[in-house]
Amino acid sequence: MTRVARRAVVICDSNRFGQGPLVARLFKLFLYKIGLWGAFNYIRTRGKGYQISEGDGLFYSYSVYDTYDVVANWANRVLILPSEPGPSNTWFHPLLSAPGVILIGIRESSVTGEKP
Fold this sequence. Notes:
With 116 residues, the protein is of the alpha+beta class. It has helices at 22-33, 37-44, 68-74, and strands at 8-14, 50-53, 57-60, 77-82, 100-106. The chain has one domain (8-106). The chain has three helices and five strands. The longest helix is centred in the first third of the chain and has 12 residues, at 22-33.
């Protein structure tokens, strides 16, 4: 996306850190931050890397936060918005409170008129 986008990248997708009970959300975030989410997901899916559910069919574990660093390195500004209503009275909103998130990266031209 960042290779072909000119001014903006918009991703609207799920946020695994905002799904499930609070303890599960914190546990998933902890595993991700210490770099063990991939190993945990491998064990959880019995080596397949994907799961199957009635609502989604075949799906892989993903959060828009997995793509945050790529977008942040490309963009001048990054916005993160919940994609559905939910509690916003926490410092960790929407990271730990929104099951779906919209990630927007905006790339602006430099002041001198050069292309970024």
